[in-house]
Structure formats: C-alpha cells, structure tokens
Design brief:
Blueprint lengths: L1 H46 L2 H13 L1 H16 L9 H13 L10
Helix pairs in contact: 1-3, 2-3, 2-4
Length: 111
C-alpha cells in the first residue's frame, strides 16, 4: 500500500508543479502582452492627433480587428520614418477609406 501511496503522492506533486509552471507562463505572457500594448499606445499618441485617436477608439468598438490592422500599418510607417508630423483626423479618414476599399468581397452565385 505504501508504494501505491508514494506513486500517488509523486503524481500529485508532478501535477501541481505542472499547473504552477503553466500559471507562471500564462502570467509572463500576459505581462508581455500588456507591455506591447503600452508601447503601441505610446507610439499611437506620438503619431496621431487626439481627434484621430478618438476616431480609432470609436471604431474599435465595432471593428476591433480592422483597427488593429490600421494601427500596425501606422506603426510600421512610423518606424520606417514615413510619418513626419502627427496624422490628423482627415488623414486618418482617407487611410481608413483606402484600407476598407481593399477588402475582398466573396460573391456566391447559385444556379
């Protein structure tokens, strides 16, 4: 019986250690995600006017994936040095129109 109890105890310890390790990894990933999010916010504050940031925040409520794509493009432009001054609300509107026009439409025709 003691062998069986030892095996059970070892197995429980292994499971606890795995759970603890997974929790630590999840916490580290969450911290990394938060850090990246803060960096992204800082860059957006540097390259967008308050009105443009407000427009993106409103748009994020309805189309978060689209806003994420726009933000990544803006960050890439800024990193390449192609953003010389803050992007205004009007410039952002034009960019949004261009990117929204690029989406593919799938038409299904039935016969």
């Amino acid at each position: 019986m003691t062998d069986l109890e030892d095996i059970r105890r070892r197995k429980m310890l292994e499971l606890q250690q795995k759970a603890q390790q997974q929790a630590m990894e999840a916490e580290a990933q969450e911290q990394m995600r938060q850090q990246l999010e803060m960096q992204k916010k800082q860059i957006m504050m540097q390259i967008l006017t308050p009105e443009a940031r407000s427009r993106l925040a409103n748009l994020r409520l309805t189309r978060p994936d689209f806003v994420e794509q726009i933000e990544l493009q803006l960050i890439q432009l800024a990193q390449m040095g192609r953003v010389r001054s803050k992007i205004t609300d009007e410039q952002l509107k034009e960019l949004l129109k261009r990117v929204a026009g690029q989406k593919r439409e799938i038409k299904i025709s039935r016969k």
